[in-house]
Amino acid sequence: MATRRRNPYPGLIVVALVPALLFGGCWRFADGRAPDEVFVAVDDSVPATSAPVAINTPLLSVRRAPAVLSRDANSAAFLSELQPLLDSIDSSSCFAVSIDGSPVAAVNETVPLRPASNVKLVTASVALEVLGEEFVYTTTVNGVVGAGGVVAGDLFLIGGGDPVLNSTWWVGPNQKFPPVNVTSIEVLAEAVKAAGVTSISGSIVGDATRYDDEWYLPTWAPSLRFSEGGPLSALLVNDSREAADLSSNDPVVGAATVLTQLLQERGVTVGGPPKEGTSDGSPAVAKVDSQPLPAVLQEMLTTSDNNTAELVLKEIGLAAGGAGTTVLGLEKVMTTLGEWGIPLEGVTLVDGSGLSDENRLTCQALLAVLQHGSVDDAVGQGLPLGGKKGGTLYDAFQEGEPLSGVLRAKTGTLDNTDGVANKPGAKALSGYVPLPGGGAIEFSLLLNGETITNKSEYRPTWELLASILAAYLTGPTPDALAPR
After folding, report:
1. With contact defined as beta carbons under 8 Å apart, do 282 and 156 qualify?
2. Cα–Cα distance list, 139 to 158, 289, 382 (Å)
3. Looking at 158-162, 271-275, 389-393, which range is the least confident one?
4. Fewer CB within 10 Å of terminal CB in the chain, N or C?
């Protein structure tokens, strides 16, 4: 049975207004007993200035907290507007919404459901705390450069885990969402050339030992491998493509192949074929850094980049547990969520992207993660923007529709690609609606069902949600309720 929380706001408004009225009365009483005349010394040597505009609102009036007053004034109407949406949520789905972290309404919020790519919200939030906003991925080229720029032996391309190390021609596995905020491997090739390297007697050897060699997670459906996620490697270029129409059987060799070609194009001769190996400890010749972590997270969230999510998770494992593995990354994710006070009953995470059908999240947990963060932090600002090209919300909430260019939310889609009878898919949407004057509405909507990924199935619910959230923004604003 669907459960609904009582709306707390009518009672809270009364509780808030009673002390405010009492304090306001005390202020007026004190004001009435003030002496008729007050002597103020005036220094004639100080130039006269314009007097500030007088504010007549008592110091202890509820108007002195206009954002809170606006929220409270709008909440009762908001709950009433939400009722049709709440009534539409069946037992296979959940919904929860809050305003500035204060609960408004929820249905089935503790039921574990398939979250699809909403898992990326969790991965990004934990990465921001564990790795920090200043974190960058560094890819290096190591070797010994001798006289005349000759490398007598191999030159090592050492992967730093950068998930967005790309050639300029790479448009991503899904051309609707080309990669953004990438790290240019051409820049790395130019740096090798600038270091004076003229020829390499050996090979470009790819080193991916920063992470483990689990290219695909065992819980991923076979149909999703490569096309949607993987291969996963600490050395990955163009998602393991050597050319626009040529994939590599080995991501490490593929990366070494791309760099070999770029160096040859720049006049550097390479004697041996690209291969995989381990660096011999020689010094760095050149390097290229990714943009700071917030830009990488934006790439992951805006385009729903599965490889980026999985490699970020491995980096969390390396930072927290000493090894770049999915298992250690997940352990740190769950530990961090617990430290934040996120309700974890029913929560099961087996990857960082949400590709696995075995992930389970609750609307309660997702809402709490959103509340722990902010629409203004790197995760909030990295989310797709309704109606904006380049992100997964490009065809929803378009110009002229409610919340166009306002709503920031992570989408999620998981089809029953294996054709298993009665196996539900997932369509998810969780994020923020910024409020005038600051703060935000936080919401999480997880829809599960056999045909839920059909636009005719989920779009009516999305559109109803958008109209309700947009209606809240038309109520009394903090500016209208500010002190006068």
Report:
1. yes
2. 6, 6, 24
3. 389-393
4. N
Measured over the CA atoms of residue 246, residue 252, residue 233 and residue 179, the dihedral's sign is negative
Domain assignment present for residue 314? The answer is yes
Shared domain check, 147 and 127: no
| CB 414, CB 223: distance < 8 Å | no
Based on the fold, state whether residues 120 and 220 are members of the same structural domain: no
Q: What is the pLDDT of residue 434?
A: 97
Q: What is the DSSP letter of 116?
A: G
Last residue of a domain, one of 291, 322, 355: 291
Respond yes or no on whether the N-terminal peptide bond of residue 112 is cis (omega within 30° of 0). Answer: no
Does 388 share its domain with 424? Answer: yes
Cα(472)–Cα(82) distance, rounded to whole angstroms? 10
Q: Which helix (H) or strand (E) holds 10?
A: helix 9-32
**Sign of the torsion formed by the C-alpha atoms of 229, 233, 238 and 240:** negative
Q: Which tokens hold the place of 264?
A: 């040859």
* Same structural domain, 239 and 362: no
- CB-based contacts of 382, cutoff 8 Å, min separation 6: 124, 294, 297, 298, 300, 301, 302
More confident residue, 39 or 202: 202
Residues 255 and 167 in one domain: yes
270, 291, 312: which is the final residue of a domain?
A: 291
CA atoms of 51 and 188, how far apart (whole Å) = 61
Residue 40, in any domain of the structure: no
326 burial via Cβ count (<10 Å: 0-12, 13-18, 19+): buried
225 lies in the same domain as 277: yes
Digit-coded pLDDT (tens) for 421-450: 778 999 999 999 999 989 999 999 999 999
Helices (H) and strands (E) in the chain, counts: 12, 17
Same domain, 281 and 253: yes
Report the pLDDT value the prediction gives residue 55, as an integer from 0 to 100.
60
Q: What share of the chain is helix, strand, coil (3-state, %, to 5)?
A: 35, 20, 45
Domain annotation covers residue 38 = no
The half-sphere exposure of 322 on its side-chain side, counting CA atoms within 13 A, is: 0
| Interatomic CA distance for residues 99 and 158, integer angstroms | 46
Q: What's the CATH number where 241 sits? A: 3.50.80.20
Question: If we measure between CA atoms, which residue out of 408, 371, 364 comes closest to residue 100?
Answer: 371
Q: Determine the structural domain holding residue 210 and report its residue range.
A: 138-291
Q: What is the DSSP string of 11-30?
A: HHHHHHHHHHHHHHHHHHHH
Judge whether 57 lies within some domain: no
